[in-house]
Amino acid sequence: MTGAGAQGGAPGSDRRVLVGVTGGIAIYKAVELVRGLAREGFAATVVTTAAARRFVTPLTFAAVSRGPVLDDESAWQSTGGWFEHIDAAREADVMVVAPATANTLAKMAAGIADNLLTAVYLAFRGPVIVAPTMNWAMYEHPATQENLRRLAGRGVEVLPTGRGELACGEEGLGRMAEPEAILAAVRRAFAVAAEGPLCGRRVVVTAGGTRERIDAVRYVGNRSSGKMGRALADEAYLRGAEVTLVATHAVEGAPYTTVPVESAEEMAAAVRESTAAADVLVMAAAVADFRPREAEPGKIERGQRETLGLELERTVDVLAAAARPGLLRVAFAAEAGPRIDRAREKKAAKGVDLLVFNDVLAEGVGIGADENEITILTGDREIHVSRRDKRACAAAVLDAVEEALP
Ligand code: CTP
Asked: Which protein residue has the closest C-alpha to ligand 1 atom 6?
């Protein structure tokens, strides 16, 4: 498995997930799971059992996965048939079965292949994750427990079930894992199986705009949302890197180390520490160039003032302070206008390995937006990445990083 190409996004993504869906009431969470996968740029292919179709029509899964849904019926009716469907399904990188009923788990454990889903499981050679769901008594039955142990013993990741009210009205263990927990397992499976150039490398990413204190409640800041930095950190994680994200905003659900900071000074300290043994530093953060010379410990009162002067001083240059042999540094240059000339000068002046240029005045991209349009300046090339999802832009930046790594 290698890193995603510049296209990213689903469909067309080169991270393929096969989602096996069986007939359990928790199937509504599977719809949410497939939606989440598509949102994160995975190409999801859904395979359902006949029982699953009684709960949710294939149309629902086709809509959320933006692709065809495979099942026994379609396998027999469409051209190619059964074996072509199995082949198509096993091309995926990761397989997840959610919800996984006691019946399907038993078949998987025994190697029974009497429907497309279980046949695909037998033919599949990548990582498999199952999210069991059933009535508590069925779950606790020694037969089910033995099947789960057998599957786990073969390397299948069996997600824990939750306790609570079950569809049958009884209380107990048997609730399916939440879609976010299943998504996390899918991401982890990709990270573990990754084998590209970033695999095992230590990557530090900074994100967001720094806040420089004026007084106890006010600060000088900027409009950076931190989305580009988050996308870069997520993408590096999926490529198997050991990621640290130094961010000025709350980062939810990140599967890697995050270090919260506020000011340029704090960011510099965190970057210094985390890059000590790192291979790559990606400075996506919008670091304030100036900060108030003196921050008031209390709150500046309005009083009778008509004006308020703030004297600003330069902040530390985080990127420059982190420079050391063996650390590949990536700078960002957000310019007001199509100033690629300024970006080129900046790259030379800062002595960085790569520089990512974007025009913050261009419509629909840049600060706060979900999309970006960038030009990556490498040692010998300028790679233009037309307007697209920030996740796909992150993939293009990391492609360039991989190429530049010694
Ligand atoms: N940067 C930094 N420390 C600072 C200011 C910026 O590490 N104190 C980093 C940014 O994270 C970015 C790169 O330097 O990766 C370029 O930032 P930018 O503000 O565009 O560059 P400046 O050198 O500040 O140039 P100018 O403000 O004149 O455009």
From this structure: 287
- In angstroms, the CA 59 to CA 378 distance is 45
**CB distance 332 to ligand 1 below 6 Å:** yes
Determine the topology of domain 197-404 in CATH: Rossmann fold (3.40.50)
Two tokens at 329?
């540094």
Q: How many CB atoms lie within 10 A of CB 383?
A: 17
Can you list the alpha helix ranges (DSSP code H) found in 4-140? 27-39, 50-55, 58-65, 72-77, 82-90, 102-110, 116-123, 136-140
β-pair partners for 132 = 100
Ligand 1 atom closest to the CA of 346, numbered from 1: 23
Any ligand 1 atom below 6 A from CB of 397: no
**What's CA 243's distance to the chain center, in Å?**
12
For the record, the structure tokens of 289 come out as: 């160039």
| Predicted confidence (pLDDT) per residue in 30-88, tens digit | 999 999 999 999 999 999 999 999 999 999 999 999 988 999 888 777 666 778 788 87
Task: State in Å: Cα 287 to ligand 1 middle.
Answer: 6
Superfamily of domain 16-190 in the CATH hierarchy: Flavin prenyltransferase-like (3.40.50.1950)
pTM over 0.90: yes
Q: Is 199 a catalytic residue?
A: no
**Cβ–ligand 1 contact at 356 (below 6 Å):** no
